[in-house]
Amino acid sequence: MALPDLDVRSVLNVVEENFQRVGLKAYAIRMIYIGEHAIPKDEMIKHFQATINDVNSTYCEINVNGLLLVYDSYFVHIVEGSEDTLHRHFRFLFEREDKWIEQKRREEEEAALALEEEEGLTVILDEETEPKREFKMFKCLKLLIVYNSLQTLTFDDWRALTARPPALISKLDVNGPMSEHMEQLRICLDKIRRIIALAKADDNVL
User: PANTHER family from the entry (predicted)?
Assistant: First the structure.
């Protein structure tokens, strides 16, 4: 009795075949994070757009695509890509913030010197009584969820939309039980999922 043919494929062969089947070059992930920003909405969108362009202009197993919702003080960012490209997106974003802060400080110093020269005065500031202005692009960032090993990508491009924040139905209790926090997170993710569906169905939505 003849023995059946053995499967001599390696794990790498199986992984490569799976990637070919779904049309990907690497494992794809979807990340949803939120944050509070301290600059105008249009300027915030430009910074994110530049970061996405910088990432996608280099070699990428999977380009970074997604949807950015920008409110007056907050934003929601849904991004898809490989683990490497999304990490690169964050690195470029934080580097861009550092450069922006340096530029703002330099502009403030130049404006102060120009004012002194114009008035013919030399102003000596006491650091304790006259603290330097603090520049921030982001006040805080929070990661909501990461979806790993995606077989189907939701987005085929990246775009940003401005919107008005929805009304808060009930006030969150920071000291409440974990079950309430998880329920609020579930509601939030469900609303984000519906927003994604609307945005994909109509390019002019929101």
Answer: TESTIS-EXPRESSED PROTEIN 47
Angle at 149 between CA 9 and CA 26, to 5 degrees: 60
Q: Give 120's DSSP letter.
A: T
b (16+ CB within 10 A) / e for 65-100: bbbbbbbeeebbbbbbbbbebbebbeebbeebbeeb
* Span 75-134, pLDDT tens digits: 999 999 999 999 999 999 999 999 999 998 888 888 777 777 666 555 555 444 456 678
Question: Is 28 buried (19+), middle (13-18) or exposed (0-12) by CB count in 10 A?
Answer: buried
Q: Three-class SS of residue 5?
A: coil
Q: How far apart are CA 80 and CA 32, in angstroms?
A: 9
